[in-house]
Structures are given as C-alpha cells and as structure tokens.
Amino acid sequence: MTTTPLDRRTSLSIFERMLMIRHFEEAVIQLYKQGRFVSHYHIYIGQEATGSAVLEALGEKDLICTTHRNHGHIIGRGCDPNRAMAEILGRATGFNGGRGGTLHISDPSRGFLSTSAVVGGCGGLATGAAFGLKVKREPHVAVGFFGDGSLEEGLVIESFNIAALWKLPVVYVCENNSAGAAGPQQGGYPTAITATDSFTRLPAAYGIHCLKVDGIDISAVHAAASEAVQRCQSGNGPVFIEAFTTRWPGSSPLWPELATVTDLEAAWDSTRIGGPHANWSRHHDPLLRAARELVAAGFATRDELMVRDKDARGRIAAAAKFAVDSPTPVPSTVGDHVFA
Amino acid sequence: MTAPSQKASTSSVQLNLTATEGLRLLRSMQLIRTFEDEVRTLYSGGIIPGLVHLCTGQEAVAVGVCSLLNSRDMIASNHRGHGHCLAKGADVNRMMAEVMGRRTGYGMGRGGTLHIFDAANGNLGTNGIVGGGIPLAAGAALSAKRRGRGEVAACFFGDGALNQGLLSEVMNMAAIWRLPALFVCENNGFGEFTAIGDVTAGPDPIARGLAFGIPSETVDGMDVLAVRTAAQRAIDRARSGRGPSFLVCMTYRYGGHHVGDKQDYKDSAEAKAWRLKDPIERLDRWLKETDLATAEAIDALKNGVEDEVRAAIGLAKTAPFPNASDLGAHLYD
Amino acid sequence: MTSPRNVTYRAAVLEALFGEMRRDNSVILMGEDIGAAGGVFKQTEGLFDAFGAERVIDTPISEAGAFGIAVGAAMTGQRPVFEVMFGDFITLIMDQLVNQAAKINYMSAGQFNVPLVVRTAVGVGSNLGPQHSQSLHAWITHVPGLKVVMPSTPTDAKGLMAAAIRDNNPVVFFEDRMLYNRRDPVPDGDYVVPIGSAEVKRVGGDVTIIATGRMVHTALAAAELLAQQEISAEVVDPRSLVPLDVKSLVESVKKTSRAVVVDGGYRQYGITGEIATSVTEHAFDWLDAPVIRIGGADVPIPFSKTLELLTLPNAERLAHEAAALVRGQR
After folding, report:
1. Is the distance from CB of A104 to CB of C130 less than 8 angstroms?
2. Is the Cα torsion angle C1, C5, C11, C13 positive or negative in sign?
3. If DSSP codes are grouped into helix, strand and coil, which group holds residue C63?
4. Most-buried pick from B77, C174, C209, C292 (CB within 10 A)?
5. How many C-beta atoms lie closer than 10 Å to residue B176's C-beta?
6. Using a CB-CB distance cutoff of 8 angstroms, which residues of chain B are in contact with residue C110?
7. Count of H helices and E strands in chain B?
8. What is the mean pLDDT of residues C162-170?
9. Chain segment C43-102, per-residue pLDDT in tens
10. Does residue A183 sit at the B interface (CB-CB below 8 Å)?
11. Could you tell me if A155 lies within 8 Å of chain B, comparing CB atoms?
12. Which chains touch A (3 or more CB pairs under 8 A)?
C-alpha cells in the first residue's frame, strides 16, 4: 500500500496526541508508585502512533470502543486528561464518577461507548454501535480498538461474521503488540496463543477487507484508517486493520515499570538513550520516531517540538494535580445509576 | 444453495472396498433411513413427545466417517444425531426406547432424542446446544492424545454452528495442541429455517479452518465413498499425531428442521435435484455396477433392517416409562 | 503426619494441587497464564516446572471453548482443574458448565461423569472495578448437578481442593484473592476435608453467625466486638454451599435461638436467602427472632476505594445487627 505523505497540520496533530498520551501514561505510573491509587492497570506506551493516527482520521461523531488498555485512546481522542486521571484515582470528578477506574474509562460526549475490561467485549460493542449507525442511516463509523488477545474470544469472531453479513460500518483496529513479548512459554506476560500464522486470516475468512500496517509509522496508520473509514462510509462493510508494534518492555512484568522517563531530545541525540529499555527506545519508540520524521520533513524544528513537549508535560502535571486534589465519591451515592 | 455437480460414485474412484464393507456401508445408511422414517411416523402419531430433528438424506456423512472409527474412537453429535449414534454402533432398541421416553433407553428416558449418550460405543452424546458437542470432542481428543494409543475424536455439526464463536475457539486450540480431532460440518444449506447465505459471511466455510492452518476440504456429502475417502485422510492425519482436520460435507435434509416444519423456505426444484443424488440409491447402484452385490443381497439387507427397526418399536412400545424414583437418579456420580 | 506449619492460603491450595497431581496422573490444569507464568496471582507457581506443558496447559483467551474441552476431557479419563481467572468471568463458561457439565451424568444415566474442578478467585477490595470484583457463586449453587465449595482458611482450602479433585462430579471452588496471604497452621501431607461438612469456627451461646468465605473472618472479628459487649457469638462456616450441611447449621441455631447469615455476594436472591430459609424451615420452633441476612450491596462494585468498601459487609455492622438481635430489638 503506497502512502501519500502526511501534511504538516495532520502530522503535528497526530504528534500532539502522542505527546499527551506518553506523558499521561508516565504520570499514571508515577502516581501508582506514589500510592495514589490501587488496582491493576495497563499502559499504552509504545502504541501511541497507532491510536493517534487512527483517531486523527475520525470525525467528531464517530463512535469508539476500547478495552482495558484505554488511556491512549481516551487521551488521544482529546478527552479531558483531568477527568481521565481523576477516574484512575477513583475520584468523584472522574469520567465514571470513580466507579470504573482505569479499566473502564469512557467519555460518551466524545463518542466512547462503555469500555469493557472483559477481553472480547469491545468487539461486540463496536459491532453493535455500527449497527445502530446503519439503522439510523448516519454517515459515521464505529471503531473498535483491541489487542491480539481479543481474537481468541469467540465473541469477536461472531461479531466479524455479523458485521460482514450486514455490511456494518465498523473498523476493527487490532493492535498487535505481541511481537517481542516474552510470552507464556518464557514466563512473561501474555502473547497470543494462536494457531494462525497471520491474524488477518481470521477476519478474511468472513470476507472482511484487511489491512496490515507498521503500527509506529504514523503515515501508514493514518492512510489505512482513512481508507477504512471511507470504505465503511460508502457502505462496503467492515474493515480490519492489524497494526504491529513491538511491546514496550515496561509492560512485560505484571505491573508496569517505568525505567526511564521519556526524553524527547533523545530523538536526535541518541547518547541520551540509556537504561534497560534503551534498545526499544532506539528502534521501536513511536514518539521518538515521529519527532525525527517531523524534523526531517521540515514541519517543525527541534525547539518547536520541545515547546510542545513542555506544554504537554504541563497539561499532564495539571491533570495529576487536579486528580489528587479531587474529592472521593460521596458514600451515599454508591447506589446511584444502578438503574436509569 | 445449488447442489454439487454430479460426481457420481460410479466414476472411476479406485477404492479398496470389499463386498462385505460395501454392504456394511449400505446397511448402516439404510438403518438410519428406516429408523428416521419410522420415528417420523411415530412422532406424527403422537407416540414420541417433544421435538425430533431427522437426518434423512444426510446418512452418507455419518456413515462415511463412523465406518472408519472403532469403539475407542469418540464422537460428539448434535440435535440431528440419530444417524451419528446408529453409525457409531448404537443399539437400535435402546435408541428407540430413549426417543420414546422409556426407561430402557440410553438415558432412562430422561434425555430423549437430544441427549442420547452411548459410552460403550464412544459416543459423547447428541446435544441440544448448537455447537455444544464441539468442545466435548476436542476434550476427548485431548484425552486420546495423552493416552497415546492413536485414538481420535470427531464432532458433527451443521452449517448453523459455523457461526458459533465456540467453533473458532476450539479449532484454534485443536490446531495449537495438535489434537487428534475431526471437525465434520454437515452443510445442508439451512440453519433451522434460514438459508446459509443469509447468515454465514465469507468466501467459503473451509476458510475458517484454513485460517488456523487446519487441513480443510469440501466433500460431496451425498456420496458415502467420497466422505469415506476424505475421512480416511483426516483420520490418518489424526492418528499419526499430525493434528485436526475440517471437512465440510455438502448434503441435504429431505425433511424440515424438525418434524412438523412446513419447509416453506425450501425451493422445490432444488429439493428434487438433491433427491436425485440420494446416497443410498447411489451406493446401491454402484455396488451392483461393480458387481460387489446382487439385487437379492441388497433386498435381503433392507428387509433385515426393517425387521430390526420394527422389532425395536415393538419392544419400546411395551417398555415401561421411568417412574418417580428415577427422577433424581444419577444426579451425582 | 507432622504437626501443622503456618502456610498461606495460596500455598495451601498449591500443596493440594501438587499432592493430587503427584498422586493421580490424570489430573491436569488448564487456564490462562497458569503455566510458565505461574498464574497472575502466583497461584500455580512451580506446577509447570514440576509437571510440564502436557499437564499444565496455558489456554488462549477462549474460556468457553477451553472449558468445553475440559468437560470433554473429563468425560474421557482426565481430571481437569480449570481455572477461571476472575470470578466474574464465570459468565463466559456458563453454557458448558450449566448445560453440559452439570447434566451429563444425569442425562446419560451414569454412563459418563464429569470429574472436574472449576477454580476461580473472587474478592472485593483491590479496586479492580465492576467487572473484576464479583462473586457469582449464588448462580452456581442454583444448578442441580454441580457441587460448590468456598473455603475460608488455608486448611479448608487445601482439604477442599483435594476433595474437589477426588470427587467424580463437577465441583466449583471459589477462593478469595484477599485471603491468599493469610497464614494459618495447615496439616502436612495428604489432607482432605469432606465436601458437605460445615465447621464451627468459634463456639458461642447467644447467637449463631453463619458466614461464607472471607465473611468468616469478618464474623470472627464481629464476635470479638460482641464479646466486649458480653455477647457470645458462635461462628459456623458451611465450607460447602452445595451440598449444604443444614444439620450442623440447625444444630447451632437450636442452641442459640438466634441467627445472622452473612455472605459476600450480592444480597438480592443470594446465598443468605437460601441459608436463612433452610434454617427457618428446620428450626422455626427454636428461633426467638427472624433470621437476619447480610449480603453485599446490590450495586455493581465500584472502583473507587471509598465506595468499594461500602459494598461489603463489615465487622462493625455485623456486630451491631447481631447485638440488636440478641437484645430483642429485631
């Protein structure tokens, strides 16, 4: 698939999203280490290019479903990082009023449906969202972001069949982050346990149009997403995009580990890369790569990028403070919203 | 769905088939045919309660596969399962009794047509849940693999089950773990009252097995010898530790989804075309043409089958129903 | 048998698994991340190294299919212990559990039985949110053909896991993650607790508190609070929910004349309703007051710490209710 280069505006917009996600996720890990919240949580570092580039290709009214690894999609979509961080800390000001936490962050005002932490749930919900759009004859699409593990759930396969049959306007974005993961046989955390030699064979068996992209190449991802959205809008049925990323080493242990905080200048000064994740930073970090590409394309100078970086850090620091300062939910509200 | 092209078993398929085996295949199919015909009559006469799902027309698939299995190989069946049970060696008397809800049946009359289990013949049961038997067969294959004696397990399911996520999950695991399993889809073109094309997306059902690297093929399900040949390949593969196979057998049910179904959704011209490929008539012709059997031998065979089934009905009609004290039996082992 | 040593709940279950797997080659484990990874809570640590990939099987995230395979394997000579990572995910295996495993022995009139164990961890309190905190054991107790156990101590966990594996029927074993690090003296070697036997965890005379799982410890803490008010509470732990040792529960209530039932699952249509009614049916003439039941709040379990804690019965509330009962205020 040939890719037309992105223009400056689009590239920078994608980069902004990625910056926000990266700093948000690093702040989450730091807050956890400070004991600001309990719970198991999942980090999107390493996958920012995929989420951001897809989200850039979406319109305001498109619908989004995500999974337990949702922070990147929420922040990348431009949802309020204050409320996202507050939700992670279980505060009343969070998107879900503190009831969902990291696993279930959702902002319906920006098109998110309910975020399922049961693997596979996203497939069903995204397909259903697309069905709703089709029934109402709205010219929008539904996007489901999930990992390679989701393809092991029968529910997702059933969804493929129905989406293809009814030509539903749904884009399935499978973020395959298992490349390079330790996997169950090496005692590390999970990688796909699958017999297929290529994940796209599964949706293809249902006649779904499939695309494969390098998940850290923002141009390629954006092109694939744009093609997918257009196909859906023309009534041609669902599209499956498989985006490959090399798993961030900090995600391999059961709890995320931040070895080094991202130093954007490492994008053009590799002597700044160090620590146990150095190899990954050098070759697989989408943020550093995007920074290099922007500078090389003449879309921004290093200094301009550093200004944006500082700005993003500032906004995230403010979000962390907002969250920490926010009240916890009022006990008497525990029964609210059980029913509508 | 159109009928497959006429690839009559009278064409030169060189098979290592003895007269004995040929007649055995014919008898097995005829037994199913007669059993189902009688069940239909009994049901319509109000003697069989509930619902029955008959496999008339599909006999070649059950017989083609099961004729190659022994009693230690396992099968799991579905709601349209009388044929699988009989082909796997079930006692006709106990089957008829079970379908009629009598105490002498395989399940003491408490299971009925949808829950006929036959452990002595390696039958994990007919099943009331679409796709329900698929993982059971794979589990039996897992056991067989552990035992290491070359045993295999086959599951039978319809085209309706193709869209069960469970099938995909189990195929994946069977492939990863190289289970000695056979996935046999009896594609009769209808899931209940709905045509396959209305509910099954994708280029071809076999793509769903191929996606996991499982050897998969489409077979003429109205030709018992074609089924048998394909099944032999699959069974050999399983027995030698090379993992699962997927067979999509193109077939047709002459009856409805259940007895009483008006079948308004069927095209009569299409139905007629399928009947021209009747598996029993086909084998009958072939056996005569190749001089493996005489008309007299075949007639005698059919009479024998009729006698057997009628005797079973007689026995079942006089058998007792389960009583109140049987209600809680075998709740726990 | 040597004298008991202090062992954690997690380790006690592991001891049972090691013991049974050594004893019986047909015992196999299936679940997600249980093999080389040793389990997300380290609950299967060491088993993969000891018994290998043939007997400790990592499945894909395909609970329905994998559990169905476990059922088929159980019908044909294996004794699988199938792990459902979080109790909430028992929903994913429901068809194979309810419509197949529970009924196969019955439907086949004993030709096939299903000797398997479903092991799942429940446990409110780690802020894992609404889809990772539930205990749906009440659903499972409702289905004839299944046995259900809910050990509260390391000793009971070891003994009941061994019993569950040796039982020729499907047994669902609910353990509580929040008890994993709890240390108690545990018998060494081969140790079995019969399924269907309750145990008095604390002898008392004024009120019977029947408690399940982690609530046993809540009840014991409540008993301490009550003792300070000079109320003597007897704590009875059913240990098995199906079959339920009604006889032992009734014996206690006949002695005390008052009962409180406490369980950690949702209160509505839950375990406490069943136990309270069973007790009432058998001991009505001995009761001085209605049986009180306390369960988890009837809301999805929220993530936030302050809200999450509200949903679970606590010792103070339990003691308060029991005291009121004893004082004739109920």
Report:
1. yes
2. positive
3. helix
4. C209
5. 18
6. 329-330, 333
7. 12, 7
8. 98
9. 999 999 999 999 999 999 899 999 999 999 999 999 999 999 999 999 999 999 999 999
10. no
11. yes
12. B, C
Residue C37: both structure tokens together: 């990874």
Kindly list the distances between the CA atom of residue C4 and the CA atoms of C147, C156, C184, C202, in Å, as whole numbers in the listed order.
28, 13, 9, 19
pTM of the model: 0.92
What would the pLDDT profile of B182-193 be if each residue is shown by its tens digit? 999 999 999 999
Task: Give the span between the Cα atoms of C218 and C316, in whole angstroms.
Answer: 9
Q: Which two tokens stand for residue B225?
A: 């010898």
Look up residue A242 and give its amino acid: E
String of DSSP letters for C211-235: E-TTHHHHHHHHHHHHHHTT--EEE
CB-CB neighbors (< 8 A) of C92 in chain B: none
Contact partners, residue A252, CB within 8 Å, separation at least 6: A181, A182, A188, A189
Q: Report the candidate in C264, C257, C267 with the shortest Cα–Cα distance to residue C237.
A: C264
Interface predicted TM-score (ipTM): 0.92
- Res. B228: pLDDT tops 90: yes
- B129 to chain A, any CB pair closer than 8 A? The answer is no
Contact C57/A191 with Cβ under 8 angstroms?
no
Whether chain B has a CB inside 8 Å of the CB on C143: the answer is no
Kindly give the residue spans of alpha helices, DSSP state H, lying in chain C: 9-23, 47-55, 63-75, 94, 104-107, 137-141, 154-166, 215-228, 246-256, 271-283, 305-310, 315-326
In SS3 terms, chain A reads as: CCCCCCCHHHHHHHHHHHHHHHHHHHHHHHHHHCCCCCCCCCCCCCCHHHHHHHHHCCCCCCEEECCCCCHHHHHHCCCCHHHHHHHHCCCCCCCCCCCCHHHHCCCHHHCECCCCCCCCHHHHHHHHHHHHHHHCCCCCCEEEEEEHHHHHCHHHHHHHHHHHHCCCCEEEEEEEEEECCCCHHHCCCCCCCCCCCCCCHHHHCCCCEEEEEECCCHHHHHHHHHHHHHHHHCCCCCEEEEEEEECCHHHCCCCCCCCCCCCHHHHCCHHHCCCCCHHHHHHHCHHHHHHHHHHHCCCCCHHHHHHHHHHHHHHHHHHHHHHHHCCCCCHHHCCCCCCC
**Which of B119, B146, B168 is closest, CB to CB, to C112?**
B119
Chain C partners of B137 at a C-beta cutoff of 8 Å? 72
Q: How far apart are CA B192 and CA B211, in angstroms?
A: 26
Higher-confidence residue: C32 or B1?
A: C32
Residue given tokens 């909430």 in the structure block: C88
C53 contact B CB<8A: no
Which tokens hold the place of C12?
Answer: 């006690």
Whether the CB-CB separation of A86 and A323 falls below 8 Å is answered with yes
Identify which has the larger pLDDT, B46 or B8: B46
CB B51 within 8 A of CB B258: yes
| A154, A328, A334 ranked by CB distance to C299: nearest | A334
Split at pLDDT 50, 70, 90, the class of B14 is low
Tokens of A265: 């200048």
Buried b (16+ CB within 10 A) or exposed e, A6-17: beeebbbbbbbb
- What is the distance between the alpha carbons of residues A252 and A183, in angstroms, rounded to a whole number? 9
Closest alpha carbon within chain A to B212: A196
B74: closest CA among B238, B205, B188, B242?
A: B238
Q: CB within 8 A of A289, min separation 6: which ones?
A: A49, A216, A217, A267
Contact assessment for residue C253 and residue C161, using Cβ atoms and an 8 Å cutoff: no
β-bridge mates for residue C200, sequence order: C236
Residue B230 neighbours by CB distance under 10 Å: 24
Q: Do B208 and A194 touch (CB under 8 A)?
A: no
- Residue numbers in B near C57 (CB within 8 A): 177
- Helices and strands: H and E segment counts in chain C: 12, 14
Active-site residue list of C: 63, 132
